[in-house]
Amino acid sequence: MTTYSPISVIHHHCVPFLSLSFFSRRPQPSSLLHMADSEEPMIAPGTISELAFNKYKRWQWWFLVALCIGFLIIGQCAAVILGRFYYDQGGNSKWMATLVQTAAFPLLFIPLYTIPAPAEASTSASPSIKIILLIYFVLGVLVAADNMMYSTGLLYLSASTYALICASQLAFNAVFSYFINAQKFTVLIINSTVILTLSASLLAVNEDSEEPSGLAKGKYIIGFLCTLGASALYSLLLSLMQLTFEKVLKKETFSVVLEMQIYTSLVATSVSVIGLFASGESHTLHGEMEGFGKGQVAYVMTLVWTAVAWQVCSVGVVGLIFLVSSLYSNVISTVSLAVTPIAAVIVFHDKMNGVKIISMLLAIWGFVSYIYQNYLDDSKARHAQAVARSQNDTAC
Which residue ranges run through the membrane (predicted)? Predict the structure, then answer.
């Protein structure tokens, strides 16, 4: 959904637009690894993160990083929980659930125009407006389709099961980034892919799964397949957007990344509105609101705050990219994969049977394998930088 999102994810719905480097290519050196208490965070020179770090005092920088982490995790987790609440209380419009995932995108104009962006270095000739608009349109349509699949999955699954299946996006990321972005397979990435596939497979064959409102097993299978398909499409979007940055736009600055999210969200929102009216679901919204379990005001507020939550998540993702790195932003967004099932158990009393617990542990194992691979890449990059710096000093 717009994770983004959902890696995100989960919320992953915000992640595809903003956080690309972690799964789609070899990452930039992370800014927060191997840092002693007395050291300043290591920010790659010449990046937007370096400008952000130099602009603020150290305590201010750390405060903003912590704030963005809170925005990302809380926004993503709240959006999924509210989405499940909408269905539990009588909401039944998949197109409305799809619409709210991107409808609040105008909020992103606030950080776009209030957060200073670094001056962009001159590059080769920019692509034509027609090409850019075509890219935004195609990606926006794919985002709308992805959000629709996520909405269908959340309709037929408990929030905890939904979140665990979304972890499969990491495995899909490995496959698509290999073929599209020339990402190399390593033993750790293969291990992560296999483990995450097993994690999703356990949920697929789980006979003791708890479907919302006593739905039939067939509905559970539809929800599982839609969520799995949405995770695959989300991963494909990551790779396609990374390819767009590298081959078409040829830059990845704060403003360019944020503009891609805004305009693709505009297209996705338009598609969702068309789908809402074309499907006839718009005629049922009034009755849906009147029959909402917690009342009409709660119905409106649920939709409003779901939309706001997704954009709060987006601001957190963009902020971390601006302040630290795309890698770190993806790490934090993926952490929420473990937070959402726990929150679902607390809020909805979801059933956490043995299969779900094993699936969660496998998902964490697969996630850690991904993180450790990026840790090794980061250490290698730091060593290469240190050697190059030493050689330059010797030459001088």
Answer: 61-87, 99-119, 131-150, 162-180, 187-205, 220-241, 262-279, 299-324, 331-348, 354-372
